[in-house]
Design goal:
The chain has 321 residues and is α+β, with helices and mostly antiparallel strands. The chain has 9 helices and 12 strands. The strands form 2 sheets. An 8-stranded mixed β-sheet has the order 4-3-2-6-5-1-11-12. The chain has a 4-stranded antiparallel β-sheet with strand order 7-8-9-10. Helix 3 (61-74) packs antiparallel against helix 4 (118-128). The protein is globular and about 55 Å long. The chain starts with a helix and ends in a 5-residue tail after the last strand. The structure holds N-hydroxy-L-asparagine. N-hydroxy-L-asparagine binds at residues 80, 181-183, 201, 203-204, 213-215, 234-237.
């Protein structure tokens, strides 16, 4: 190769590699730090209120998301989360939760019984151990050692419905699709522009004893990357786990997808495996670092609550399945 050709081709490859570098750079540049809180479902409204009151006192996004979902966990009328959650097939309420902060730290508990606030146990796992995840009896023992109170989480209403299900449906139930569940994922950006997320659930109603869904799995039910965004999932956890759902949405945003397109693509990946049709629901919410919000669901019926510009509002999502 002549010297001039060599210089020309080196210049071309320099341009090419710098454009590769640009692609790998964080595409989300402009960051305004007004607080935003985004949650799944209608119980997201009170959760957002609790979260924003923390941020308004200059609390961190981590404190905010924990405080937010604790409202849902403590609400006996919310039958998909914490106290009052629908039990498994054998009548036991078993809870899954995870939390992530803006430094990428994560904590999680799964198959936890008799503790009303699994999200706070998950936070303790994150902050006071070298582990990420505790399950079952070990998670409960850890919670008790940390001062959490043991209590019966099965309310009369959830117990009666379970007894009815046993009578009418237990034989034909495949523990497959059912819409009796509304996990809460809450994502927040605080006054410093830092992101955090929390996700907590009693999982699918009448699931097999020992079943763990996506909600406590970092990268499935929830994921936070403070440079890119935070994402939460709801719906049939098995499908979210198989597609690393929340992590996928964050990675798509890293590649330059809008928050909305990233959520849609993650839903479409699941739909594709079902040949475009599904009788179960999946919903994603995404909060990009720059404040852009995205959401998507397979079916109509999914809702999200958004606190932005001093307003906390509930929105319906049109399904794409
Ligand atoms: C689970 N993803 O355990 C949860 C259930 C859920 O809205 O999200 N319900 O699979």
């Amino acid at each position: 190769m002549k010297r001039r050709d060599f210089i020309k081709s080196s210049a071309i490859s320099l341009v090419a590699s710098s454009s590769i570098l640009t692609q790998c750079d964080n595409p989300i540049k402009k960051v305004k730090n007004d607080p935003i809180v985004l949650s799944t479902w209608d119980h997201g409204i009170p959760a957002n209120n609790a979260a924003i009151s923390i941020i308004n006192k200059n609390g961190s996004s981590l404190e905010a998301v924990e405080a937010g979902v604790r409202v849902t966990e403590a609400d006996p009328l919310s039958q998909s989360v914490g106290l009052g959650g629908r039990p498994d097939k054998d009548g036991h309420v078993t809870l899954d939760a995870c939390i992530m902060d803006s430094d990428g730290n994560a904590g999680s508990v799964a198959f936890l019984r008799d503790i009303k606030h699994p999200i706070s146990v998950a936070r303790k796992v994150m902050e006071q151990t070298d582990h990420v995840m505790l399950v079952g009896k070990g998670a409960k023992r850890f919670a008790l050692e940390k001062g959490f109170k043991e209590e019966n989480l099965l309310t009369d209403k959830s117990r009666e419905e379970w007894l009815q299900w046993k009578k009418d449906n237990s034989i034909k139930d495949s523990w497959g699709p059912n819409d009796e569940h509304d996990t809460i994922s809450t994502l927040a950006r605080d006054n410093n522009g830092n992101l955090a997320g929390a996700c907590t659930t009693s999982g699918l109603a009448y699931k097999l004893h020992g079943r763990v869904g996506d909600s406590p799995i970092i990268g499935a039910g929830m994921y936070v990357d403070n440079e890119i965004g935070a994402v939460g999932a709801t719906g049939k956890g098995e499908e979210v786990i198989k597609t690393c759902g929340s992590f996928l949405v964050v990675e798509l945003m890293r590649q330059g997808y809008s928050a909305m397109d990233a959520c849609k693509e993650a839903v479409n990946r699941i739909l594709k495996k079902q040949s475009g049709k599904s009788d179960f629901q999946i919903g994603y919410i995404a909060l990009r670092k720059d404040g852009q919000v995205g959401f998507s669901a397979i079916h109509d019926g999914f809702q999200y609550a958004l606190y932005k510009n001093n307003k906390n509002k509930l929105y319906d999502v049109k399904g794409i399945g």
